[in-house]
Amino acid sequence: MAKDEIREFRLVGTRPDRPDGLDKVTGRARYGADISAPGMLWGAVVRSPHAHARIVRIDSSKAEALAGVKAVVTRADFPTGLTGEDWNLQENTMAGEKALYDGHAVAAVAATSALRAQEAARLIEVEYEVLPHVIDVDDAIRPDAPVIREGAADATVPEGMPPNVVRYIDFGRGDIEAGFAEADLVMERSYKTEATHQGYIEPHACLGQLGEDGKGEMWVCTQGQWFIRRMCTAVLGLETSQLRVTPSEIGGGFGGKTTIFMEPLSLALSRKAGGRPVKIVMSRSEVLRATGPTASASMDVKIGMKKDGTLTAARAEFRMQGGAFPGAPVDMALYCAFAPYKLPAVQHIGYDVLANRPKCAAYRAPGSPMGAFAVESLLDEMCRELDLDPLEMRLKNAVNTGDTSSYGPKFGTIGLIETLEATRAHPNLSAPLGPNQGRGIATGYWFNHNGETSVSMALSEDGTVQVSIGTPDIGGSRASIALMTAETLGIPYEDVRVNVVETGALGVNEPTHGSRATFACGKAAVEAARQAIGEMCRRAASEWGIDPEAVEWMNGAAQPAGPNAGEFPPMTIAEIAGKMGSTGGPISGHHESVPDGVGASFGCHVVDVEVDPETGRTTILRYLVVQDAGRAIHPSYVEGQYQGGAVQGIGWALNEAYIYGEDGRLQNSVFLDYRVPVASDLPMIDTEIVEVPNPGHPFGVRGVGETGITPPLPAIANAIHQATGARLRQLPMSPPRVLAAIGEARQG
Amino acid sequence: MRYHTPSSFDDAARLAAEASGVTRFLAGGTDVLVQMRAGAVLPDDLIDLKKIPGVTEIAQTGDGGWKIGVAVSGARLGAHEALVRDWPGVVEGMELVGSTQVQGRATLTGNLCNGSPAADSVPGLVAAGASVEITAPGGRRIVPVEDIPAGPGKTTLAAGEVISAILLPPRGAGGGDAYLRFIPRTEMDIAVVGCAVNLRVDGGRITEARVALGAVSPRIELVPACAEAIIGTSLDDAALDALAGAASAACNPIDDKRGTVEFRTEVAGVLAKRAARIAYARANGD
Known about the structure:
Chain A: It comes from Paracoccus alkanivorans. Chain A: This is Xanthine dehydrogenase family protein molybdopterin-binding subunit. Chain A: Residues 26-132 form the Aldehyde oxidase/xanthine dehydrogenase a/b hammerhead domain. The structure holds two protein chains of two kinds. By secondary structure, chain A is an alpha+beta fold. Among the domains of chain A are: 21-28 and 450-593, Aldehyde oxidase/xanthine dehydrogenase, molybdopterin binding domain (Aldehyde Oxidoreductase, domain 4), CATH 3.30.365; 367-448 and 599-747, Aldehyde Oxidoreductase, domain 4 (2-Layer Sandwich), CATH 3.30.365. A seven-stranded mixed beta sheet of chain A has the order 3-5-1-12-9-10-11. Chain A has a five-stranded mixed beta sheet with strand order 7-15-14-13-8, with helices on both faces. In chain A, strand 9 and strand 10 form a beta hairpin. In chain A, helix 3 packs across helix 7, helix 11 (368-385) packs parallel to helix 18 and helix 14 packs parallel to helix 15. The model of chain A has no long low-confidence stretch (mean pLDDT 97). By secondary structure, chain B is α+β, with helices and mostly antiparallel strands. Chain B contains eleven helices and 14 strands. In chain B, helix 9 packs antiparallel against helix 10 (237-249) and helix 10 (237-249) packs across helix 11 (261-283). Chains A and B meet through helix 19 of A and helix 11 of B.
């Protein structure tokens, strides 16, 4: 355990009200679309109705003639010569020579009202030459598939691969064939998962302003204001520091708001409209057609197992399409696929494939749920074949602290075994099951992330404290960071206000992604508070006329470190703050780093389902999430993350899918038909927080946001198998698929 | 767009007859306003019926039936105890439409006029033998509900015709009805299959029956073969199997984002059996 780990906590582990709670429940909180400015225009985007089409001509003359229309932009208004991911972002922001998916932006217009802007968008005439398209990843990899973009493959792709393969991954260790030869049972199966959207409730919204001098402002709903700044300025050819980006409150992101979509369009329109601010608010349909879902996957997995459950070898070959651009998370999927298990031999092969779909974005543990669906489903099948308890098999093979992971690095302190043991002890495992009911178990993994982090805290004149962080608060991180700061300073939770600040106020911060905010910003806030404590001790020492080293900080006050230091009453933070103007000036603390010591998080889920044998409809009866949090700073928000991950996984497993017509158009671009679970579909999700402290964080925190979406896909497939005898290897496990599978299982 | 608030159905019909562009009647607005927001329908004339006296009333007719105003919301329908006692299947179909918020506005008439083959309230009306009163510039006429749908998004109503009330027949003794739909979720969804059964029993034996199917063909259909399968029986297993077979045989569905042909065909039979059991239990006072 690290020397600075604190074992007795006054505040950490308690459940105070969140500081943003009142504003959110009363509707006062300001989200992306709530921001307006004087002289504001409204933007609307013209989008391709075709999956793949050459743009022959764009005629905006009728739109520009409409009263109230102030600007029209196309790709011609963007700089040329970008390369790499900057070019990808620009091309995705606004189509160039070709529209690459249904919903791809081809033009944008700004007008004096939202209705006028929409009317003008309808008047912009775009002539297309429709090209053959490809949607499915296996179709896209065929040699005769329509080519999305020649020469898009990077150096990893061997000669002779189909042109839509743009990245190739091949790694592993051990003698894989010897491992399979040693096994009593070797099974190989193929699996498919559909692309799913993060489904955040708040659509993308921004208000952008850009003058002829290249100076701009943006108010935007985002997970990362510095990412918005860097990407927008790159796409528009501006100097990064000249754009100031302020994040709004955020109605969900799940990774999907770590990149840009229409944000540069508002800036380009503003510049063309003489610097008037331009607001763009996406409709739900635009969100589903044109923002980033996760990838779809086609996967082959082969595993060797001894009769006692010991794993001998494993091989995974994953093919993923992440839209018309490189970046499907096939690498992450492979890293996570076998991470929970000790494996003497393992091989991973991956293909990143282009298709005529929107550019994928991060979605909660990107890639990991797909790999888990394949691997954890196959392990369940093998356990049934060998009559092994699936939980005991997992315990038998579980990785422990110091083990070498399947993807290479050695694990630090991890809590998989503790998580599996806590699962075994939970009462849900002995709940009785009735007819047509089944129980499924699966594990899941996510690395967690650190990232560039910059945090400041400052003492106010009354002894209360403000903390400035750069990570938008999606899951309660302001409460957690206030708790950690108050714990460190020895002051009440209510005395700390945590502000999510704009890009001008701190150094670069990565977004709230990778389950990093509570870990990285929390660690930085503690360091900043310790710095301020040092200064407060110096002020007290100076007043008392003793050595700063003879002063210690306890219970929110400076006091002499021992009897030799002298007899002085404690000097409280409020006393120090009250006179700081005359004792040396403002007192603050600051910390910036890419903090080391990230703690990975394993989880285990147990789900009980009932399947209607006549309709194939699956009802979730009971659902248990057990996961290692390291230390739960605010247990309610840890539980919220566990429950949210499970619910998104349930949706992915059962009904969510991108449904394309023969014409390559997305057919379900509204929530009516893009079927996320509704509240009445779900039982209360049971949670169990396991705490194996992460020695890399002063309070032991691990990220907890992402692991929870990983086990639901296979856990539900395993439960449906037990309930029906039918093994579903393709998502979603919608009623038509389940009913058909039950019919096939009955016929043997 | 011109927004009209006529004070009588005669005026509403005249306005519609005189209009030349895209015309929409507005009752609850839960379809029309959504279509307008999405840009799918941009009416030239929007005729709001809610200012017409009586449109939010539910009244018992002289023969013991019911007259339901065109702006009566699902929530009001569900709160009307006597109507729910007579026609639980009709009311439960309407109550499945949309969310709690939508229930405060959405109407039977609007659900019918939207022309969706998957409309949840329509199979129950058809099975009940309900009819609509139509007002046109030339006068009024009464038409069975099953004659209104004409295919997805279409009705048989001519320009200038407006539905001015929904009429339910007297319930009579030994009657029971029920509506079931299949959706992948528990609410906030569109029927993949819908089935309404209305029947009358005498001494445990079914003497009359009407069965209607939704979402399995271009329009909501009354299926006489389903009724024949159970009339004269006490809804034993053989009758139920015959009912399911007739329901599946009547299906002419499509493969789409909500379900496959095979699935809809099979589940139509399943729902017919389940709805018949509920209607039968209600008819027997169970």
